[in-house]
Fold this protein.
Amino acid sequence: MEVLLFIGIFIASLTALLFASDWFTDAAEEIGTAFGIPSFIIGLTIVALGTSLPELATSIISVIQSNSEIVVGNVVGSNITNIGLVLGGVLIYARFVRLEYNIWHIDMSFLWGSAFFLWLVVYDGRVSWLETILLIGLLVIFLFYSLQTNTDDDGDNLPTQKKKRDKIRPFTVGKLIVSAILVWKGADYTIYAIVGISKVIGFAPEYIALSAVVLGTSLPELFVSLSAIRKGNAGIAIGNVLGSNIFNTFAVMGVSSIFGPLKIPDNVLYFYIPTMIIFTILFGIISNNKKLTRWEGYLLLTFYVLYLGEIFQNL
């Protein structure tokens, strides 16, 4: 009965977390559009930040509640899920995606750099204050260049949502604030349920973070990306996946480590981070020619199934 109670709390709190994140993303996207920000940049920054809020909130709460081993599992698992499940699912659904810009100009290089940087940061089993400062500093640099760069390699302007700035409605600002509060409370109860389930069943919290939590917290990325594809806006879909992974690495790891020391489980360090790097490299390879196909989506999804199989094998 105790397990069922914790599972019920987990499902309810995660559902609230996902809905609140969706509302936050809608409000943030409306604000970004009002300022005439290009669609790819909205996906790369505003939408990516909104869909990464569940990972950030659950990670901060886990550190505050002395369960910091969840953080790195949350980040690594989310990055793998975003590429394997979300991007793979989007490509299978869309059949073919043509990029109108060269994401290798800045964004993919940042993504690769963030993956290798995370490996170096946690290699000694801890995150120092210097590394925390560097993580947050790299996030600031990435945001600065993303918001300043509105052209591709050929000098063509990226398509903007609106040429004229619209007024931002007070309702939108209120929606942004309320949804942010709901995200925080949803994350609080999600971590409470995770710890309760792990104690009763006997599973290590990082395994739950690598599987159930990341599957749940990656739903915003999946839904937002599929919605963007349905509307014919591949820029937001691809930018969302790419930006979310960069936010997960720099923001979630960096901000969470401010609240306390992070525990780095050995299995995450020696298997799951290298797996994340493999997925990141695959993302870069398939996007190099600005064309992503359904078969590449099947490839990513196949790798993701192997990843899940490894988790369940070790439970």
About this structure: The CA atoms of residues 80 and 276 lie 5 Å apart. The two ends are 22 Å apart (CA to CA).
